[in-house]
Amino acid sequence: MQLVYKNTQNHKITVFLLCNYSIPQIMKHLQAINPLLYSFFLLICFTSCTKDDVNAEFTSITVKLKSTSQEHDKVFIDIEDVQFKVKEDDNEPNAWMSLNAINQGTYNACNLNEDSALLLVDHIEIESTFIHEIRLVLGDNNFMDVNGLLMSLEVENLGNATPSNLVKSELISNRSYEFVIDLDIDSSISFNDEENIMVFNPKLYTSIRQYEY
């Protein structure tokens, strides 16, 4: 079957419905078409055939951060990144993979409740793999407001600038995963008498939801 159209230059353009043709017949008809259109057709065919194969190797990832606190209302944390541990040995090259957090900077963690979680990763695609841990990467601008007095939260030595959770999960291709990191603020803050400083050692809990494309 064929459909025939006329353009403004009175040249006929024939569009073939290829479903009922054999491969030799299709190639015969295509050779009669302008070479540029022929190349374009082949490009579309190649793209269509390989698209599923490419996507089949990837997984979609979303990461959100929320918090709980009964004792504090102004605790500010400096978020630099969120990462997956994709190799069991920390000493291996590229054991940790950055997810390129989109909302970096300093936030009042006490405001990140169930209804206003902070979006850190928004549906990025990564190669399907096994992940061992997920972690936050914090900067050095962490502090709390106590009755108008700003107190620094130490994370580099006594604290922890890269708190993590074991997740031990196989990421399946053609699936979408949502990781929700829950920061327990009250359990994360302590006072060190010897150093006379406030210490921030984040306590995290991570939930994972899986969706099919």
In words, what does this structure look like?
The protein is α+β, with helices and mostly antiparallel strands and 213 residues long. The protein folds into two domains: 2-54, no CATH class; 58-212, Immunoglobulin-like (Sandwich). The chain is 16% helix and 48% strand. Strands 4, 5, 6, 8, 9, 10, 11, 13 and 14 form a nine-stranded mixed β-sheet that branches. Strands 7-3-12-15 form a four-stranded mixed β-sheet. The longest helix has 21 residues, at 35-55. It is elongated.
Question: What's the gist of this structure?
Answer:
This protein is α+β, with helices and mostly antiparallel strands. 16% of the residues lie in helices and 48% in strands.
Q: Which consecutive residue ranges, at least 5 long each, have pLDDT under 50?
A: 1-21, 48-54
The chain-level structural class is alpha+beta
CATH-level-2 architecture of the largest domain: Sandwich
Helix content: 10-25%
CATH fold label of the largest domain: Immunoglobulin-like
Q: What's the end-to-end separation, in Å?
A: 36 Å
Number of helices: 3
Q: Report mean pLDDT, rounded to a whole number.
A: 84
Number of domains: 2
Strand composition percent: over 45%
Radius of gyration: 27 Å
SSE arrangement, N to C? EEHHEEEEEEEEEEHEEE
By CATH reckoning, the class of the largest domain would read: Mainly Beta
Shape by Cα distribution: elongated
Number of strands: 15
Q: Biggest β-sheet: count, sense, barrel?
A: 9 strands, mixed
Protein name: DUF4382 domain-containing protein
InterPro entries: DUF4382
Domain DUF4382: 70-195
